[in-house]
Amino acid sequence: MDKNRAKRNRQLGEQIIKSLKQRNMEGYYAETKEEALKIALDIIPKGASCAWGGAKSVAEIGLKDAVLEGDYKAYNREAAPNPQEKRAIELTSFDVDFFLTGTNALSMDGEMVNIDGFGNRVAAIAYGPRNVLVIAGMNKVVKTLEDAWKRARNEAAPINSQRFELSTPCNKTGMCYDCKSADTICCQFLVTRFSKVPNRIKVILVNDNLGF
Ligand code: SF4
């Protein structure tokens, strides 16, 4: 990472942490993916139950593997042998100690925007798990909530559609057409503007490009 960009990211990170605090959320800043992993493992106590959703950034810092291989109770829906067990794991995920996820966009003012298809991820961010740990690369940071909406809808969602090779207009063109395709992943939109439970939501900002 270029040192001037790293300096700016750190400055923005400090501001976002203050913004998150005003919204009853906890913020941390990591210079590297390795540092982000260490912060995350310091936050999550040994023995904690953990689940995840929309977790590309979580995987990219090595946190998913660390939880699966470490002394934690992991609920891994990706390992479910059939749709029934996958659903059972998703329902269990609402009662875990830590739900691990990324975010589609984060404003400088500390508001997060997330888009979901089935809704299990945004539901768990909003309610259920005792803690929500968000891993956010600085590529997710934008200035305003309006910019966060634009990023989530026009960048994160089309790339996610392309990742799953869905039959959506954005898969063909890379642009959002506000479709009503049966395959759309843009079904549930969540803006997280305040944590009713103090510090339930913790955000680790990472001086790197993570996720989409
Ligand atoms: S609304 Fe449709 S076209 Fe737009 S990003 Fe979502 S799936 Fe793609």
Describe this protein's structure.
This protein is α/β, with parallel strands linked by helices and 212 residues long. The protein is built from 8 helices and 10 strands. The protein starts with a helix and ends in a 6-residue tail after the last strand. The mean pLDDT is 96. Iron/sulfur cluster is lined by residues 157-158, 161, 168-170, 176-179, 181, 184-186.
Q: How would you write the strand order of the largest sheet?
A: 1-10-7-4-2-3
- Which radius of gyration do the C-alpha atoms yield? 16 Å
Count every beta strand, where a strand is a DSSP E run of 2 or more residues. 10
CATH-defined topology: Rossmann fold
Task: Give the CATH superfamily.
Answer: NagB/RpiA/CoA transferase-like
Provide the descriptors you would attach to this structure in a database record.
212 residues, six-stranded parallel sheet, four-stranded mixed sheet, 40% helix
Task: Describe how the helices and strands are arranged.
Elements: H1 3-22, E1 26-30, H2 33-43, E2 49-52, H3 56-60, H4 63-69, E3 73-75, H5 83-92, E4 98-101, E5 105-107, E6 112-116, H6 120-126, E7 131-137, E8 141-142, H7 145-163, H8 169-173, E9 188-192, E10 201-206
Parallel strand pairs: 1-10, 2-3, 2-4, 4-7, 5-8, 7-10
Antiparallel strand pairs: 5-6, 6-9
This protein binds iron/sulfur cluster.
Iron/sulfur cluster (SF4) is lined by residues 157-158, 161, 168-170, 176-179, 181, 184-186.
